[in-house]
Amino acid sequence: MTDDVFMLKLIQGADVYAPEPLGKKDVLVTGDKIGLIQEHIGIGKHIDIKLIDARGKLLVPGFIDCHVHIVGGGGEGGFKTRTPEIMLSDITKAGVTTVVGCLGTDETTRTLGNLIAKANGLEEEGISCYLYTGSYHIPVKTLTGSIQDDIVLIDKVIGVGEIAVSDHRSSQPTVEELTKIAAAARVGGMLSGKAGIVNVHVGDGHGKLSILEQIADTTEIPITQFIPTHLGRNQDLLASSIRYAKKGGLIDLTTSAPEWSFKKGNIKCSKALKQIIENDVPIKSVSFSSDGQGSLPLFDEKGAFKGLEVGTVSTLFKEVRDAVREEKIPLETALTVITSNPARNLRLKSKGRIRIGKDADLVLLDENLEIDTVISRGRIMIENKEITVTGTFEKQ
Length: 396
Ligand code: FWO
Ligand code: ZN
Prior knowledge:
With 396 residues, the chain is an alpha/beta fold. 26% of the residues lie in helices and 27% in strands. It is built from eleven helices and 19 strands. It has helices at residues 88-92, 112-125, 147-153, 175-192, 210-218, 235-246, 259-263, 269-278, 315-325, 331-334, 340-345; strands at residues 8-17, 21-30, 33-38, 50-53, 58-61, 63-68, 96-101, 128-133, 157-165, 197-202, 226-229, 251-254, 286-289, 295-299, 305-310, 362-365, 371-376, 379-383, 386-387. Strands 1, 2, 3, 4, 5, 16, 17, 18 and 19 form a nine-stranded mixed β-sheet that branches. Strands 6-7-8-9-10-11 form a six-stranded parallel β-sheet. A hairpin with a 5-residue loop joins strand 14 and strand 15. The protein is globular and about 70 Å long. It starts with 7 loop residues before the first strand and ends in a 9-residue tail after the last strand. Ligand FWO binds at residues 69, 73-74, 83, 104-106, 201, 230, 254, 261, 291, 294-297. Residues 69, 73-74, 83, 104-106, 201, 230, 254, 261, 291, 294-297 line the site of ligand FWO.
């Protein structure tokens, strides 16, 4: 019998990290929601329910990847370097049940219509998908002609991005231009009960986060309107990001990292997280995102394109696991950067925690912190490390 039949599933005897540790619990999944969390949940003999024996396993919230190029990205080396769009199992086998899709350098051949259609497709295939309107560049390309209207009128749009700053590929936005974008996103979010977040791509230019600090210091726009990302590119930028976070800013680190990036100073996310914690940055301000399907291009010192790789969603949890195993960061702390922190910072109200009434987005980890089972909105997508639900064009 396929899992679709079971509206009720009982996960028994898991060690639950919600992400805070709850200890051994039974968790009842009712439809697409978490229905009950108790020491022991008894069930009648004749009830039609799927039992999942989770003894010896950890149950954690489904992971949130808040920066994924779901329709593909790239192109920085010409047409043949446009990266491929994402497939469902690239996401689910990484334990990710919620993604935020975005466009990047190329908003000519990648369109918002394509992004919205892909997001709807991923939802139909079984995961949750939100979006940023716009892309790297200004003026921001939108669907309705206005950032505010896109956020208010398009359900999945929760903000704008990834707006590029301090990067040779950016539109070289002025403080005024970025302020206007943040103002529109803020009001759009207010009117629609969404975060209205501005996701900012920070390059390796000397400007770093100064444009965001100027906006926060000189206007009524709160610093938390922004989520700058790629902040582990080099030690200089990470140090600035730590200072920025200690002033109340939100910071996001990219887990996809090609070998060459470490030669250019990139700091492995698990190590960056250790440094961030050691500098007393409130962990709530920190998230990881994968830049999945985004290009990871290499440019030489003159800005000439030298080659590129493609980001993968699978790096997201890998860095969290390394933070636990190698940097000895407690699991309940490391997990927050891909669960409760992005859920809070992006105002994804039904996501990010194992709590009654929240979406039944759940991941079972085995004793080696390997992903064993993934449940998205109550549906089993991966079971005992096997893909049980494939995307439309993926072979079983
Ligand atoms: C980063 C996405 C970069 C695309 O700086 O921004 O290029 O449009 O697909 N990727 N431009 C990757 C580094 C963080 C390694 C993007 C890319
Ligand atoms: Zn980027």
